[in-house]
């Protein structure tokens, strides 16, 4: 994985609603300001450190929403993708895999991992701009690069961005002027139109722009949805005169036009889409200007990605000031979102439908400016006009319901290869290699998301051993439920099923036994005796009221006993020895306990609550108090190859070791400043104690990933500040089979995997 570096640009200038600016060590007439070059002395640049570890992902391939793919129009093979919670990606031209360029963002700035919009410079392709911010509840930032995203200058914004809010499929809101690339416009969600005239170093509100939109969808401000330039209206080197901005409004005209480089703005009259049949205004979602003088637009009743319901595709004759309806003749009502105009063939347009859940969303292609359309499936016959290769991620065959996708808000024509488009979905990216032949043969579609890992991980377990039936890893996660990973370097073939899980465990001595708790629909407990190839529901729960309660579930070391703490308040843990035929309440421990099982002795169970530790030596029938700890907010893990050893993470209190056979509780090191999570993995030498991995801080070396090979006495940091992965969850595990391998849970960057460099 390439090292990505953050350049923190410290702003000392006062910020106001109307304007804000980054401050610079050089005056405004300096050469760095004039040419936009980011000078080394002007920013902090974290340097990669040689830790001896390399970091990547457990391969899932996609898994989350990709709102848009953006090609650079002047450099072949240069493309970017934005995700709603997992950062921004750049396509590696040699490997044809995506590489995350925002992994330098750490936990304190996790909000910047949601990308509202991306602009790639059409004049100097090395320049890149990211409007970063997951939620508008916190201020966003503009990340500015002049070296293809290898380094970034960070300019703080006085308003929030909504990379994971309703309307995130709109855009692009951020655009570089194609005639004078020192100028960038940004359509915000609630602060109007902003502009930079110095390659993104400083930004000012365009005070002449008349609206901030004002439309709110499901509680979220949508704001200004796109910016589009008519390049032909000016000469190269001069600011583009004719500019269009889309605004999500409740009433009136929703597109604004300037013919004097943004000095003044007028509403573009649009009588065709002012109102729908139920008197609701359609909202402009995307807009692009073609080389022959048209503004192409997609419209939707709601910006989405949900409840679009109605929509349109329209083109506006810039010279004549007239509109033409070019919506494909579809038998179903739906919204329209994705839009791409071929820069080398102005008659070639691609659009996507939005919210055709009951049928299937579609991709429409025209080569005559919208007079006629071909599509990936025929709305009249409902027959497919495509083939779909999902060999790179077979789990996409969602229980036999494989389709073109959903939440298809962004599509992009490759400006150097008109046979290729890529479009994002709620789970992946699909692409073509024969689009121009759509009228005569099926479109060849395949997965194009390799390298993108955008899943929210809840839990994982790495088995102690491998055999022909046991995978390298089990996992559970949001949206796509979870997997058995037969090979962590290849995408799984199928997921676990229809229900999100809250907890996962395997038997310490026989990893064919797996259990998980679910909280959706008729949430219950599922168990497997064949290494998650098949699942069975427990015969019953202790009480019907505990359905959908999720919670924490564990297995005894031999897999014969299920130990369950419901997620419902006021409920004590239960055990079942017959997979749910009967249940026994653990009356000796408090309700809401944090539970664990010994990984060696099948009769030993543990529970912790408010600083008290309890142990059972009869399979959960009875418990006794074994330790009283002063810190109540803890997590703990059982050593997988030593009976009775518990390792406790206490936050600022550090790391503790509890020998349950003696009740001895001791801090392991005074050098730990913080510990969020612990996990254990294989020792370097046979017979040595397991390697301990930690998310936290030790030796005053910053928050990161650490390991100890001497039972917690000393700690070594094994990542650096260029590999922080945004919103990291408090969950880490070593691999008991491979020394030096560990797994880390994230909310949006999948399962991070570290290995010792070969």
In a few lines, what is going on in this structure?
Helices cover 1% and strands 36% of the residues. It is mostly beta strands and 758 residues long.
What do these coordinates show?
The strands form 15 sheets. The chain has a five-stranded mixed beta sheet with strand order 1-11-10-9-8, with no helix packed on it. A five-stranded antiparallel beta sheet has the order 2-15-14-13-12, with no helix packed on it. A five-stranded mixed beta sheet has the order 30-34-33-32-31, with no helix packed on it. A hairpin with a 2-residue loop joins β47 (605-609) and β48. It is elongated and about 85 Å long. The chain is mainly beta and 758 residues long. It starts with a strand and ends with a strand. The protein has one helix and 60 strands.
């Amino acid at each position: 994985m390439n090292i990505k570096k953050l350049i923190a640009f410290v702003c000392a200038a006062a910020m106001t609603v109307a304007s804000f600016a980054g401050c610079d060590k050089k005056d405004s007439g300096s050469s760095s300001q004039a040419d936009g070059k980011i000078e080394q002395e002007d920013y902090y640049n974290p340097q990669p450190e040689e830790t001896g570890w390399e970091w990547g992902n457990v391969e899932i391939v996609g898994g989350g929403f990709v709102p848009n793919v953006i090609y650079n129009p002047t450099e072949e093979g240069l493309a970017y993708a934005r995700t709603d919670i997992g950062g921004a990606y750049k396509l590696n031209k040699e490997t044809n895999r995506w590489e995350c360029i925002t992994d330098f963002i750490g936990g304190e700035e996790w909000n910047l991992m949601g990308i509202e919009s991306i602009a790639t410079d059409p004049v100097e392709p090395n320049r890149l701009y990211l409007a970063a911010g997951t939620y508008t509840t916190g201020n966003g930032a503009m990340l500015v690069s002049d070296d293809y995203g290898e380094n970034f200058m960070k300019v703080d914004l006085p308003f929030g961005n909504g990379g994971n809010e309703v309307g995130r499929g709109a855009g692009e809101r951020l655009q570089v002027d194609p005639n004078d690339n020192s100028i960038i416009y940004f359509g915000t969600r609630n602060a109007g139109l902003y502009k930079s005239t110095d390659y993104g170093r400083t930004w000012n509100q365009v005070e002449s722009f008349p609206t901030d939109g004002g439309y709110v969808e499901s509680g979220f401000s949508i704001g200004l949805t796109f910016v589009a330039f008519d390049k032909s209206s000016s000469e190269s080197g001069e600011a583009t005169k004719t500019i269009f901005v889309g605004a999500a409004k409740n009433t009136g005209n929703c597109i604004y036009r300037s013919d004097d480089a943004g000095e003044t703005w007028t509403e573009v009259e649009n009588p065709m889409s002012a109102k729908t049949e139920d008197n609701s205004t359609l909202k402009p979602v995307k807009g692009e200007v073609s080389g022959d003088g048209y503004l192409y637009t997609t419209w939707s009743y709601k910006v989405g990605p949900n409840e679009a319901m109605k929509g349109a595709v329209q083109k506006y004759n810039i010279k004549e000031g007239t509109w033409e309806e070019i919506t494909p003749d579809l038998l179903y009502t739906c919204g329209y979102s994705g839009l791409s105009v071929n820069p080398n063939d102005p008659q070639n347009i691609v659009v996507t439908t939005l919210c055709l859940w009951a049928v299937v969303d579609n991709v429409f292609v025209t080569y005559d400016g919208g007079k006629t359309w071909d599509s990936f499936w025929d709305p009249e016959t409902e027959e497919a006009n495509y083939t779909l290769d999902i060999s790179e991620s077979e789990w996409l065959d969602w229980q036999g319901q494989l389709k073109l996708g959903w939440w298809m808000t962004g599509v992009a024509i490759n400006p150097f290869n008109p046979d290729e488009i890529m479009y994002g979905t709620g789970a992946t990216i699909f692409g073509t290699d024969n689009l121009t032949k759509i009228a005569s043969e099926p479109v060849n579609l395949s997965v194009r998301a390799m390298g993108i890992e955008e899943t929210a991980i809840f839990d994982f377990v790495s088995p102690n051993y491998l055999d022909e039936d046991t995978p390298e890893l089990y996992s559970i996660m949001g949206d796509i439920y979870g997997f058995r990973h037969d090979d962590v370097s290849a995408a799984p073939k199928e997921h676990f099923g229809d229900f999100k899980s809250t907890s996962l465990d395997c038997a310490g001595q026989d990893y064919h036994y797996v259990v998980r708790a679910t909280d959706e629909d008729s949430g219950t407990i599922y168990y497997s005796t064949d290494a998650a190839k098949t699942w069975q529901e427990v015969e019953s729960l202790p009480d019907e009221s505990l359905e959908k309660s999720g919670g924490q579930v564990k297995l005894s070391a031999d897999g014969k006993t299920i130990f369950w703490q419901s997620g419902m308040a006021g409920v004590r843990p239960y055990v079942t020895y017959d997979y749910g035929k009967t249940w026994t309440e653990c009356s000796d421990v408090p309700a809401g306990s944090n539970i664990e099982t010994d990984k060696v002795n099948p009769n030993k169970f543990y529970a912790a609550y408010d600083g008290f530790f309890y142990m059972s030596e009869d399979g959960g029938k009875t418990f006794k108090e074994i330790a009283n700890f002063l810190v109540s907010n803890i997590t703990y893990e059982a050593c997988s190859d030593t009976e009775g050893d518990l390792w406790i993470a206490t936050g600022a209190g550090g790391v503790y070791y509890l020998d349950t056979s003696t009740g001895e509780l001791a801090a392991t090191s005074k050098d730990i400043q913080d510990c969020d999570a612990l996990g254990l993995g294989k020792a370097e030498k046979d017979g040595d104690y397991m390697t301990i991995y930690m998310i936290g801080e030790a030796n005053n070396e910053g928050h990161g990933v650490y390991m100890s090979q001497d039972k917690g006495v000393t700690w070594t940091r094994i990542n650096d500040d260029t590999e922080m992965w945004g919103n990291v969850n408090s969950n880490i595990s070593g691999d008991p089979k491979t020394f030096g391998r560990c797994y880390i849970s994230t909310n949006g960057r999948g399962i991070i995997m570290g290995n010792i460099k070969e």
